[in-house]
């Protein structure tokens, strides 16, 4: 799986202008089963996504569709989950 941090590089007013389209993008990939969780950073300097296992090229293509691509940079880290609480056992890799 991947942890993706979005770091805003433009003023929050520009981010807000794209928020509705960003939420539609999130909904599309949650509905497709690609995204596991998402949320804002606190303080509001960006956001975070947990993304299921896939080829990195596929993830890069999905991220390129995000309307926030013009107002944020993406830091992508691949994670091999080896321990998880029982409720999240499905996140563990092989």
TrEMBL record:
Residues 1-79 form the YCII-related domain. Gene3D superfamilies: Dimeric alpha+beta barrel. PANTHER family: GSR2449 PROTEIN (PTHR37828), YCII-RELATED DOMAIN-CONTAINING PROTEIN (PTHR37828:SF1). Pfam families: YCII. This is Uncharacterized protein YciI. Signal peptide: none annotated. InterPro entries: Dimeric_a/b-barrel (IPR011008), YCII (IPR005545). It comes from [Curtobacterium] plantarum. Belongs to the YciI family.
């Amino acid at each position: 799986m991947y942890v993706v941090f979005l770091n805003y590089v433009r003023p929050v007013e520009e981010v807000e202008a794209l928020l509705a389209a960003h939420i539609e993008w999130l909904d599309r990939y949650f509905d497709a089963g690609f995204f596991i969780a998402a949320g804002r950073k606190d303080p509001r300097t960006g956001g975070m996504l947990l993304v299921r296992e896939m080829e990195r090229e596929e993830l890069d293509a999905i991220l390129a569709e995000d309307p926030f691509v013009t107002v944020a940079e993406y830091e992508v880290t691949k994670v091999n989950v080896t321990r998880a609480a029982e409720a999240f056992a499905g996140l563990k890799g092989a």
